Hints:
The structure holds two protein chains of two kinds.
Chain A: H1 5-14, H2 21-38, H3 73-77, E1 83-84, E2 87-88
Antiparallel strand pairs in A: 1-2
Helix pairs in contact in A: 1-2
Chain B: H1 6-14, H2 20-34, E1 41-44, H3 46-61, E2 72-76, H4 103-110, E3 114-119, H5 153-160, E4 166-171, H6 177-183, E5 186-189, E6 209-214, H7 217-227, E7 257-261, H8 271-286, E8 290-294, H9 302-317, H10 336-347, H11 350-363, H12 369-392, E9 395-399, H13 415-419, H14 426-430, E10 435-443, E11 446-454, H15 459-472
Parallel strand pairs in B: 2-3, 7-8, 7-9
Antiparallel strand pairs in B: 1-3, 4-6, 5-6, 5-10, 9-11, 10-11
Amino acid sequence: MSLTTTDVKKIAHLARLNLSETDLTTYTEQLSTILEFVEQMSGANTDHIEPIAHAVDVSQPLRPDVVTEINERDAFQAIAPQVEAGLYLVPQVIEG
Amino acid sequence: MIYKTIAQLSADLHAKKISSVELTQFFIDRIKRLDGSLNSFITLSEEQALTAAKQADEHFAKNKAGVLTGIPIAQKDIFCTHGVKTSCGSKMLDNFISPYDATVVTRFKEAGTVMLGKTNMDEFAMGSSNETSYYGPVKNPWDLERVPGGSSGGSAAAVAAYLAPGATATDTGGSIRQPAGLCGISGLKPTYGRVSRYGMVAFASSLDQGGPMARTAEDLALMLNVMAGVDIKDSTSIDTPVPDYTATLNDSLQGLKIGLPKEFFNEGLDKDIAQIIQTAIKEYEKLGATIHEISLPNSALSIPAYYVIAPAECSSNLARFDGVRYGYRCADPKDLEDLYKRSRSEGFGSEVKRRIMIGTYALSAGYYDAYYLKAQKIRGLIRQDFIDAFKKVDLILSPTSPTTAFKLGEKTSDPISMYLSDMYTIAVNLAGLPGMSIPAGYANKLPVGLQLVGNLFEEAKLLNAAHRYQQVTDWHTHTPEGF
C-alpha cells in the first residue's frame, strides 16, 4: 500500500499534526514502507477466527454507583497551561 | 566487583549493618558520579529519597520494617509520581508534575521503599533503543557507543551499572525483556492484568504491562510481590490470588518440560547467541528439565499485527495531549485548531508522530477491517499457537533478541529494522503471557539474554526456573567495567 503526499496531509490533519514540506516527503515514504510491511497480514487465513482485544477472557467488572473521588479541581488546574476562575482557557471559538 | 542484591541489602538493613539513609546516599552518590556517561536518569529525587529513607530507618528502630523497607529503587518515568516530574521521555510532558501517584508507585511507597528518581525511556515508550527520548539517548554501560535497548533503557542501564538495585519498567512489545537482555540484567513482564496500569501513561492499552527489573530472579520475585494484584482503579487488572513469588523459587525443575520454538532458532539469529542459548539449554537439562521442539507457526505475523494494533491504540490514547489541560502548549495560538496542531507537532517527537499517523490511518473509515480487525484476528491465531504449545510444555525458551546491543544511530533511519529487534518478544504481548529475560553469557563482550515464557499467571514458574539457573551460573553477578 503506497500513500501519496495528499493522503499523508489528510492523515496528519485527522491526527491534528502539522507537517513541514520536508517532513511530508519523509513521512510519506516511511508510512508507505510500514504499510507495505504490515500487508503481510493479508496472506493469513483468518476466516473463522474471532478478533481478540483482551488476552485473558474476563468480563468487565462492575462497582456500586457511589462517589469515590473527591473534587481536586485546584490541584488539576495548577498544572494547566492557562486557567481563569476555575475554567480552562482556549482561543475564542465562537464569534461574539 | 560483585554488588549486593535487593535480598542481600534487605538482610543487611534488618541486621542493622547499614541504615537506609546510608544506603540511599550510596546510590545517590553513584548516580551523581557515574550517570553523566549513561544518561539513565531524567530526574533525581534526592530530597524526597532521603526523607523516605529517614522514615524507613524509624520503622527499623520500631521493629516495624517489612522485607523491602528502606530499599532504594528507581521508577521508570512513565509511572506518575505525586510532586515529582513525570515526563514519559517527551517534551509534551516536560512540565508535568503529576497530582497523584500511580498504583505501582503507591504500593512501593507502602512497602517502605525509597524512590531514587525517574529513569529515562523512549518517548511514550515507543522505541527499542532509547534513542527517541526527548532527554537524549541512554548509553549501554557495557559499551558506551551502543544502545541499552528500549523502551525501558534507563531502568535497564541503571540496574546494570548498579545505580539502583532494582527498577520498575513497562513492556508493550518487549520493552522490559529486550533492554534487560541487552544490558545483562533480569527483567519480568507479568501476565496482562497482573499489575495495575493506573497512573502508568498509556501507550497501547491492550498490551502495556508494568513489571520489575533487577539483578536476580529472587529480587524480581520480591518486587513482584509488591506490584501484583487487582486494583479497583484499573478495570483490566485481574482478580486472581497473588502467590508469594519467593516461596517456590527453589522448587526442583525435575521433569519440567521446556519447549524451543523452531521459528525462533532460524536465520536472522546471531550464531554466537545461538551457541550461548544451546549452553543454557544444557544447564536446564542438568537441572532435570526435558527439552522439546515446538512450533509457533504464526509468529512471523506478530510484528505486522503489532505495528497495526499498537499504533492504533497509541493514536487514540495520545489524542488527550491537546495543549488544554496539562502538558506542553504552543506559544500564541491563532485559534483552537492551531493550538491543537502546533502543541502536538512541537510537543511530540518523530517516532511518536509516525505511530500516531499509522494508527490514525488504520482506524480511519474504509480501512478499519483491513488493518485493525485483521490484526486482532491474527492476535487470535497467535494466542491459539501458544494455547497449543502449552498443552505440550510448561515453559518456552528462546533468545530474548536476535542480536546483542547495536550501535547508537545504527537503526534510527530505518523504522522497520528497529521494529524487527523485537521479533522474539512481541508475540508474548499479543497473547498476554508472562515472559522474562535473564543473562546467559556474552557474545563479543556484550550481554546475551535468555527469554522464558510461561502460561497465563505462571510468573512463579518462570521465576523458579530463572532462579534455579542463577544458582548454577554467575552471569547475573557481573557488572560492566568502570561501574
